[in-house]
Design goal:
The longest helix is centred in the first third of the chain and has 24 residues. It is globular and about 50 Å long. It is α/β, with parallel strands linked by helices. It contains 5 helices and 12 strands. It starts with a strand and ends with a helix. The strands form 2 sheets. Strands 2-1-3-4-12-11 form a 6-stranded mixed sheet. Helix 1 packs across helix 4. About 30% of the residues lie in helices and about 30% in strands. The structure holds glutamine. Glutamine binds next to helix 2 and strand 8.
Length: about 240
C-alpha cells in the first residue's frame, strides 16, 4: 500500500510548525508498513489531483495569503476543488483553511477572492483571537490546539463545522463552532501543529485515505503513550 501526499506551499504556509503534520502522517503510515510519498507543491508548480490521496495546506499570515492568491488561480484552484469534490482527504490549517472558502476580507479592508470550493467566508478584525483551545468532533474526538487569527469564519449551509468548541474562540468566537468539514475535507484554526498531540484525529484522516484507495482497512494500533500524555498535559494546563 502507498499513500501519496501533496503538501501545498510548504515554504510559504508553515506557521507554528504546521509542517509537523506531514511528519506525523508519514511516521504513522510507515510504522504500519504503509509506504508514503510527499511532494512539495510550491509557487509556480502545478499538480494533478488524481495523482494524490491526501492534501495538506498550512497556515500563513495575511501577507503570504495575498502573495499566493495569483499563484493559486493558475490551476491549483481547479485541482484543489477537484480533489475536494472527489472525496480526497484534505487538511487545511488557518490561512490555508480560509483559502478554501469564498473570500477573506482582511481587517484593513482588502478582499481576497478565494477558491469558493467550500461554502464559507472570512472577515478579519483588528482584535486577534489567540490562545490554547479545544473542540470536539461529532465522532467524539477531543482536539487540543493553538489558535491565532484575525479572521472570523462564517459557515454556510453547504458545509458542517469540524467541531464544537470546548474552550477558546474557534471559527468566530460567536457561534461555538470550529473549523469546517465537507466530504473528506477538513479545515481548522488549530496550529501547534494539530496532529502530533491529537493522534486519534491523525488516524481518522489516514483511515479515510486508505478506505478511499483500498477499501475498508483496520489500522494497526500504535503506542501513543507520549502523544496522549502531551494532549493530557495541554488539557489540564490550559483547558479544563
Ligand atoms: N491571516 C489569517 C488570519 O489572521 C490566518 C492566520 C494564521 O494562519 N494563523 O486570520
Amino acid at each position: 500500500m502507498i499513500i501519496k501526499i501533496a503538501h501545498l506551499y510548504p515554504d510559504m504556509l508553515n506557521l507554528y510548525g504546521d509542517r509537523g503534520n506531514i511528519l506525523v502522517l508519514k511516521t504513522r503510515l510507515k510504522s504500519r508498513g504503509i509506504d508514503c510519498t510527499v511532494d512539495n507543491i510550491t509557487m509556480g508548480k502545478t499538480f494533478n489531483a488524481d495523482d494524490y490521496d491526501m492534501f495538506f495546506i498550512g497556515g500563513g499570515q495575511d501577507f503570504e495569503q495575498d502573495v499566493l492568491l495569483n499563484d493559486l488561480k493558475k490551476g491549483k484552484d481547479r485541482e484543489l476543488s477537484r480533489a475536494i469534490e472527489s472525496g480526497k482527504v484534505v487538511l487545511a490549517i488557518c490561512g490555508g483553511y480560509q483559502m478554501l472558502g469564498k473570500y477573506y476580507q482582511t481587517y484593513d479592508g482588502k478582499k481576497l477572492e478565494y477558491l469558493g470550493a467550500l461554502d464559507f467566508y472570512t472577515v478579519g478584525k483588528e482584535e486577534r483571537m489567540i490562545g490554547n483551545y479545544a473542540f470536539k468532533t461529532k465522532e467524539g474526538i477531543e482536539i487540543v490546539g493553538f489558535e491565532n487569527h484575525s479572521g472570523r469564519t462564517y459557515l454556510g449551509k453547504g458545509v458542517e463545522p469540524l467541531g464544537k468548541m470546548i474552550k477558546g474562540y474557534g471559527n468566530n468566537g460567536e457561534d461555538g463552532t470550529e473549523g469546517v468539514r465537507y466530504k473528506n475535507t477538513f479545515g481548522t484554526y488549530s496550529h501547534g501543529p494539530i496532529l502530533p498531540k491529537n493522534p486519534q484525529f491523525a488516524d481518522f484522516l489516514i483511515s479515510l485515505a486508505i478506505k478511499n484507495k483500498y477499501g475498508s482497512q483496520e489500522l494497526k494500533t500504535l503506542d501513543d503513550n507520549f502523544e496522549n500524555k502531551a494532549k493530557k498535559q495541554v488539557m489540564s494546563l490550559y483547558i479544563k
